[in-house]
Amino acid sequence: xxxxxxxxxxxxxxxxxxxxxxxxxxxxxxxxxxxxxxxxxxxxxxxxxxxxxxxxxxxxxxxxxxxxxxxxxxxxxxxxxxxxxxxxxxxxxxxxxxxxxxxxxxxxxxxxxxxxxxxxxxxxxxxxxxxxxxxxxxxxxxxxxxxxxxxxxxxxxxxxxxxxxxxxxxxxxxxxxxxxxxxxxxxxxxxxxxxxxxxxxxxxxxxxxxxxxxxxxxxxxxxxxxxxxxxxxxxxxxxxxxxxxxxxxxxxxxxxxxxxxxxxxxxxxxxxxxxxxxxxxxxxxxxxxxxxxxxxxxxxxxxxxxxxxxxxxxxxxxxxxxxxxxxxxxxxxxxxxxxxxxxxxxxxxxxxxxxxxxxxxxxxxxxxxxxxxxxxxxxxxxxxxxxxxxxxxxxxxxxxxxxxxxxxxxxxxxxxxxxxxxx
Length: 423
Known about the structure:
Layout: H1 2-14, E1 29-32, E2 59-65, E3 80-83, E4 89-93, E5 96-102, E6 108-115, E7 121-129, E8 132-143, E9 146-158, E10 166-171, E11 182-184, E12 190-193, E13 211-218, E14 223-231, E15 240-246, E16 249-254, E17 257-262, E18 273-277, E19 282-290, E20 293-304, E21 307-319, E22 327-333, E23 342-347, E24 358-362, E25 368-373, E26 385-386, H2 402-407, H3 409-422
Antiparallel strand pairs: 1-2, 2-25, 3-4, 4-5, 5-6, 7-8, 8-9, 9-10, 11-12, 12-13, 13-14, 15-16, 16-17, 17-18, 19-20, 20-21, 21-22, 22-26, 23-24, 24-25
């Protein structure tokens, strides 16, 4: 798929890994605690250990749509996903936009909503406002021996009607123009990341805006929009991917940094703040906002010439609370042999999935996953440690923590039993 191929080029040029997935595991469900204790027998995971843990973080992962090629019951490589206000889930996968539905047997399947009918025109980001979907399609061309993004087409899809519900327009932009994420504010303005904001310079093109602002308009028959620069590429050292808006702040992944930018009173971009930084070879991919946490998908790639190999992936809960902003609250960590790299992650809405669960889409190999966790064990596991300290990665200390973990056995087991019984 051309869009995913291009994103892989990003990680080669800037060590800013695109979403890649080498999950070859057939294991579909695991309930895990941080000291590698499994409530089920379906999976093994290396998890965070901390001498000060009082409670181990308990979470599970379940494959709800297989990545295998089974028409109607599988999901290929994905780039993004979104829930509408009414709780319907839509997933972008190559040239096709799918809706995920739950049938009477309690299993999930896919329904095709839109298709560009071209491998060079791929859905790269989607967002919703009410029950209206906005989807960005990136067009790629073979230039300089690479498939490079050159144009974005914006889809407007009214999910409340079944016919004449799709309208499109070409977004005027720079010579090289591709996106990895969109966000929408309370008034309906769309913010679009430009993954080529700096990379165009490698192909003798000028630097362009890192984030564009789009003001869409629809009069019942005609779909139109205005576009303007919201954030200059001069303010970033990398290329933005996922974008979210929360409490008058815009957040985006910028390589191994998570960036926070407040909106000024006139809607322009305020001063940039680095919310969190992780290892240089780790890339913040898509993320979502859950309550007062930013829940981010992190991917670690190792360069084994001539290819990049996925070595680690995790889901990190980062505090947005003013008194503890940027602190790691907890992490879901998976074994390299069972690694999940997610191209999109979002909090569930409506009745499709368990209340409060996270829904994540697999990247290159596809699949859809439901992540559930016990909120009682989310906090208090990692002390107020920022990403820069990398404390959460000390997996080799597992054996040293056996004594500390045993001291908490009664509390941990009682919470495990209660949580598992509720699933």
